[in-house]
Structure formats: structure tokens, C-alpha cells
Amino acid sequence: MPNNVIVLGTQWGDEGKGKIADLLTAKANMVVRSQGGNNAGHTLVVGKQKVVVRLVPSGILHPDCLCLIGSGVVVNPIALFEEIAELHKAGIPKVEERIKVSGASALLLPIHQAIDKAAEKKRGSKAIGTTGRGIGPCYEDKVARRGLRVGDLYDLDSFKEKLRALLEYRNFLLTSYYHESEVSFDSVLEQVMAVRDRLLNMVCDVSALLEQGRRSQQKILFEGAQGTFLDIDYGTFPYVTSSNTVAGGCVTGSGAGPLDIDYVLGIAKTYTTRVGGGPFPTELNDEVGEGIRQRGQEFGAVTGRPRRTGWYDAVAMRRAVTINSLSGLALMKMDVLDGLEEVKICTAYKFKDGTVSELPPLAASEYEGVTPVYETLPGWSESTFGVTSWDKLPENARRFILRLEELSHTKVAILSTGPERDQTIYLSDPFAD
Ligand code: GDP
Ligand code: IMO
Ligand code: MG
User: Fold this and answer.
1) How far from 112 is each of 116, 147, 171, CA to CA, in Å?
2) Which residue has the CA at smallest separation from atom 21 of ligand 2?
3) What contacts 405, CB < 8 A, 6 or more positions away?
4) pLDDT-based confidence at 433, cuts 50/70/90?
5) Residue 210: its pLDDT value, please?
6) How far is CA 218 from CA 5, 64, 213, 214, 322, in A?
7) Given its phi and psi angles, is residue 101 left (phi above 0), alpha (psi -120 to 50 degrees) or beta?
8) How far apart are CA 218 and CA 101, in angstroms?
9) Is 409 a known active-site residue?
10) Is the separation of the CB atoms in 88 and 95 below 8 Å?
11) What is the mean pLDDT of residues 279-304?
12) Is the pTM of this model over 0.90?
């Protein structure tokens, strides 16, 4: 019986990972985040309550679930405690006690946010459209081996020394290259010291906890952040985030073993969205796209930015299926396509030179002049909102899903017909299959 399930985005983020992670956590003992940071925004809706988690794993609404933050995550300690305070205020019990953080995770500091914003400004019309949370610069410092880790907070003298060296280097860049004002050592130290003891109380060996869980047959959910095409290696580089968002990242970033994963559930919408810059072959800049944005409430959970919208892309999905070893899909937001006369699925990309490909290229520059080849299917006028069984779906909606499965080379395990937990159709159960 599968005990270790990965939930990850197969598009450009915001697919609905939060809803599915929260749903599956009803059966899980632990939920672990492995990459990204508070650039993520995962929405959980329970009745009238809507909670958006950024750094905290989506298991937090289930009172007995342990929430782990693995070594691959970039942890902004100030943002973490702000989020904990919000969750506490929302009436969620034992929030701080249930979060465990790897001492090896990277510390994201105010200097990273300052560099992120300055770098975006400098890029001008070529801006990536980052969330401005300092994610890229923090990963840069980690890879360059000059960044600080959560565990560095134990030895205060050494922490101060490393912080001084980091700020000396980063402030030189910030002031002399970007011509912005510097971030002072004293202000960073003060902000970090205000939460140091509480953060150190949460530190643990996440990899060892996962191993303990595995040995005692506990159910563990690995919660991905962002999406496959924002992956630093397999996304539309350079319009990507700075971590491995694919299934491999869930393993390296948590400290689980690769063979411990039993099921990889890919999350996708019945259409596609993207926030920020970069290629988007099926983008709709017309009233159909605007209709999807409005009906789907496609506005960023972190930044509030309107999301770009377009048709479902089976070309991209075929790549997502193979690089993530997808076992099945959770297909979200069925209801948003209600009422459309026709619906489209992108089946191939046509390049400027006339060649046609059934797989997407690996860099943004190679997308230039790409046009989508579509298959058009009839839409449905009936509402699918809140439908809970396959048989109650309009016939054309079922036809659309079956064709989407064929073109994507994968099966739908879960179908979502609304933001709430019970607005869901289960075709198979990742923890039971
Ligand atoms: P995540 O980052 O992948 O967790 O996704 P977000 O939370 O950023 O965005 C997904 C949005 O879609 C959230 O506002 C969810 O409440 C909402 N949502 C999820 N599933 C459905 C669905 O089936 N129908 C509708 N209408 N909304 C949904
Ligand atoms: P969730 O987990 C959608 C996008 C940003 C930008 C690019 C780089 O909620 O799906 P970054 O701040 O990471 O350096 O920005 O990645 N991005 C997301 N888009 N959902 C997210 O997270 C995202 N996290 C980052 O818009 O294009
Ligand atoms: Mg999101």
C-alpha cells in the first residue's frame, strides 16, 4: 500500500496543490515541503474559512499532522513567524509545535529581497516577474557556499561573522552595481534575533524523521511548490524559479530516499495559467482568456497579480509526465470551463521553420514564434460546480477529460469541481492504490 505520495505542479504553478495536499493530508501523518520558499501561495478552503499558506506545509489544518520543512527550502524566518501568527489567529491549533525545520535549510534574509528587487529593476523589459521574495538570491548564496543556514543560529559568534561577510559582499553589489541603498548588519541581526530562539526550537533532522515515519508505516505527503515549467533545469529558462520543482527536488530537498516514493500525483488545471514573464504558447489574450481569469479567480495568492490564462497544453504535460514519473493527475477547476461553446487542447507546437513537435523545448528562446496546434471539442452549458460523481458530469465534459488523458499520456485520479474539500470526484486514491 502506498505510504509516500508526492503532490506537485505540472504547469506554471497555482494548479491547486494546496487543495489536494490538504485533502490527502486527512490520511497522512506528515507533510513535507522540499523546495521553494514563501514565493509559494497554496490556498486551502474549508467551509467559509480560506487560508493561504506560503512556507508552512498544507497539512497544518489537520490537528495531528506534523509539518516538515526540508533542507531544500529557503526559509525567511521573519515571514515564517508572520505566517504562524496568521494561522494562530485563524484558530488553527498547535501551529508552532507541529512545524519542524531542517537545520540545513538556507536562511533567507532581507538582503536577498533587496537584491531580488534590484535585479528585477535592472532587467527592465526582460524582467522575470519574480515574486520579490528574495528566492533567487538566497539560492545563489547557498550554491556559492557563502549563504547562512538555519543551523548557523546555534553559534552566535560564528553566525555574526558569517552574516557580516555575506552582507559585505552583497551590499557591495547592491550599492556599487545596482545603486540601491545598503541593508545594515544591525537591522538584519535585530530582526533575526527576535525569532532566533523560537526557530531553534523547531530545528530537527527532517531526513531522520521521514525515515522513522517510513519504518513505522506512516503516511507521508511530499508537497511540491511552484510547477514543472518553473523548474530551474526543465522549465522555460530563464523565466523560472531557482529550485528543482520536479519530483527529484522533493527527494533531494527532504532527505527521503528515491525508492521510498510510491506515487507521484501531478496537479493540473483543465486550462493553463502563468504569472510573471516567459513563454506561454496557449495564452489567450481575448475575451475567452478574460472569462477564464474571472470565473477561475486567477489572481496571485501571494502578489495579487492577474494570472495569464490559456488552453490546456498536452505538449507540456507529456514532458511533465515523464520527468516526474507521474502516477496520475489531479485535474482541477473543471467548473471554470462551464458554459464555453467549445474547448481546446494543444496537441503539438509548430515552430517558425514549419517543423512540428510533440514535446516542448527546454529554453525560453526556443519558444520564439511557436504556435499551438489545437484539437477543438464541444463545450457544455450545464454547471459542473460541486459535482461529486463522474456519472453526473455532462457528457461533453467527460469526453473532454477522456481525450485530455489520451493526449497527455496519463490518467486522471482526482477531479476537482470547486475550491472546497467536498467538491471533488475521486476516480482512484493515491494512498490506497
Ligand atoms: P497552488 O499554489 O497550486 O496551491 O494553487 P493556488 O492556491 O495558488 O491557486 C488555486 C486556486 O484555485 C485557489 O484559489 C483554490 O481555492 C482554487 N481552486 C482549487 N480547485 C478549484 C476548483 O476545482 N474550482 C475552482 N473554481 N477553484 C478551485
Ligand atoms: P505556487 O507554489 C506561480 C513564478 C514567479 C516568476 C518566477 C520566479 O503557489 O504554485 P521567484 O520569486 O520564484 O524567483 O519567481 O516563478 N512563481 C510562481 N508562479 N505559483 C508559484 O508558487 C510561484 N512561485 C514562483 O511569478 O515568474
Ligand atoms: Mg499558488
Assistant:
1) 6, 10, 10
2) 226
3) 329, 411, 412
4) low
5) 97
6) 11, 13, 5, 6, 27
7) beta
8) 19
9) no
10) yes
11) 94
12) yes
If you measure from the C-alpha of residue 217 to the centroid of ligand 3, how many angstroms do you get, rounded to a whole number? 30
Told to judge if 233 belongs to the known catalytic residues of this protein, a careful annotator would answer no
CA of 310 to the centre of ligand 2 (A): 17
* 166 Cβ contact list (under 8 Å, min separation 6): 109, 111, 141, 146, 147, 148
pLDDT at 387 over 90: yes
Q: Are strands 342-350 and 308-313 parallel, antiparallel or unpaired?
A: parallel
CA 181 to chain centre: 32
Distance 157 CA to ligand 1 centre (A): 45
Give the per-residue pLDDT at 50.
92
Q: How would residue 319 be classed by pLDDT, with cut points 50, 70 and 90?
A: very high
pLDDT of residue 46: 87
Q: Is the CB of 307 under 6 A from ligand 1?
A: no
Q: What is the CA radius of gyration of the chain?
A: 21
**Lookup result for grid cell 485535474:** 331
Residues 307, 300: contact at Cβ < 8 Å?
yes
Tell me whether residue 368 is exposed, middle or buried, using C-beta atoms within 10 angstroms of its C-beta: 0 to 12, 13 to 18, 19 or more: exposed
Number of Cβ within 10 Å of residue 45's Cβ equals 17
Q: Supply the residue whose CA is at minimum distance from atom 26 of ligand 2.
A: 276
Q: What is the pLDDT of residue 16?
A: 97
Instruction: Check residue 299 and report its DSSP letter.
Output: B
